[in-house]
Amino acid sequence: MLLLLSNSTNHGSAMFAHAREALARSFDGREVLFVPYAAADHDAYSAKAVDAFAGIGVRARQVPARDPAAAIRGADAVFVGGGNSFRLLRDLQRTGLIAAIREAVAHGARYGGASAGTNMACPTLCTTNDMPIVEPAGFGALGLLPFQINPHYLERLSDGTSTLTCGDTYTRRL
Length: 174
Description:
Elements: E1 2-5, H1 20-27, E2 32-35, H2 42-54, E3 60-62, H3 68-73, E4 77-80, H4 85-95, H5 97-106, E5 110-114, H6 116-120, E6 154-156, E7 162-164, E8 169-172
């Protein structure tokens, strides 16, 4: 099962406040390994996410720095946080998590992502709006979906205004 969010925080709200029910249903009774690689400060971002998950009754912890691929392969659930998609993909590649996450999901682990983490569920990185602050080894992502998503798609309306689909969720059973 996949739970893909456009963001983890709506402006002025607490982390995951807009998706509390979906997160609680998706990860109930499972320990979530949080992957913070899209952010510069992994520990601070993970602490914030672990607290947010705890606030909705979901156990979570940061993926360990030592042998993260082994931890992911044995996980019940993985949540990949947002930030810069190029940084995230590069670090997923460097740590062996591309193959490990694919394998875990194929064996029944649940996958959640927000923003860049949602982008990673796609076949490639190519629909990100992020700046290329680092260079990954290639643009192939997890391929958990057979199509691309731009989690920050901005639609221009005929009256000149625009809408942003923040807080929307997409779920699909595999």
